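INFO  loader      accepted 1 record
INFO  loader      residues=153
INFO  predictor   begin
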Amino acid sequence: MGLTLFVLGAALVTGAIEQAARGARMLQWQARAADLAISKLAELQALPYSPTNESLTDYLDDDLEGWAYEVIVDKLEMTSSLVPPIDRVTVVIRKGDYTYRLSQLVLEVLADEEEDDEDAGTLPTNTGGAGQGGGNPGGGRNPGGGNRNPGGG
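INFO  predictor   done
INFO  writer      dumping tokens
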């Protein structure tokens, strides 16, 4: 009787340890897949043209062996001409049977924009003059948050 209880207890503990290890591995895969998907989306957004579909592609890095990605671009139909063209970009990360998806709306890069414009390709800057910005009386950006007065008081 005692031996039976010991064997059942050992089997229960072994099963719990295996389940915990499986959960830890899944959590590790989720974190890795999220990092890969976010990196791929950032890479696609940095392109000077609208992203396109990419079929399932293996990562070439040795530490990413077994991981692959796919990019799916859906052009959304806008009902108003005031809304710029938008794509829904979905990055699918796979490892074996595990799949992770991340979607984001991305503005389409218009091919017919004038390239002769000297301001083309630059981002607008906010100098923080009077009447601009919001909430920061000193104007501009305050990355540390809150209002700071270096003069004291």
